[in-house]
Amino acid sequence: MKNKNAFTLLEMLIVVAII
């Protein structure tokens, strides 16, 4: 389930972009 890791990274990036 390497996709979960990629998703987490993407979510982190989105959060940083929102901030």
Automatic annotation (TrEMBL):
It holds the Pfam family N_methyl. InterPro entries: N_methyl_site. It comes from the Bacteria. This is Uncharacterized protein. It comes from Muiribacterium halophilum.
